[in-house]
Amino acid sequence: MLDLRLYMAQRITALLMAPLVVGHLAVMIYAIQGGLTTAEILGRTQGSFVWFLFYGTFVAAVSIHGAIGLRTIAYEWGGLKGSRLNVFMWLVGLGLFITGARAVWAVTFA
Fold it and tell me: Contact at 8 Å (CB) between 51 and 107?
């Protein structure tokens, strides 16, 4: 049952990430084509709750998706099993989330 839940969580986060990736790439292309500087980009994102929600959702989805994917790799290639495998998945997910959340906070509210 756990495998089915992890499978579904990874597929749902992939569906969530797809438009977020497209949106992120579109914003990056717009910024580069427009010749925006780092200061101008930060000026547009600082204090924006919309950008906080956009990238916060992105970070949460990537953290879950990546942790589950690395769990599968650790199981198949690394031979991790049982509680060690689950601890590995949670540590990776938490690490990704903390790192991403700090970046989102720095770009939107710091």
Answer: yes
Closest CA to 56 of 20, 6, 9: 20
**pLDDT tens, residue order, the chain (110 aa):** 779 999 999 999 999 999 999 999 999 999 999 899 989 999 999 999 999 999 999 999 999 999 999 999 999 999 999 999 999 999 999 999 999 999 999 999 98
Domains of the chain: 2-108 (1.20.1300.10)
CA distance linking residue 109 with residue 47, whole number of Å: 5
30/82 Cα distance (integer angstroms) = 46
Name the token pair of 65. 């998706």
Of the candidates 68, 60, 63, the residue with the CA atom closest to the CA atom of residue 93: 63
AA letter at 52:
F
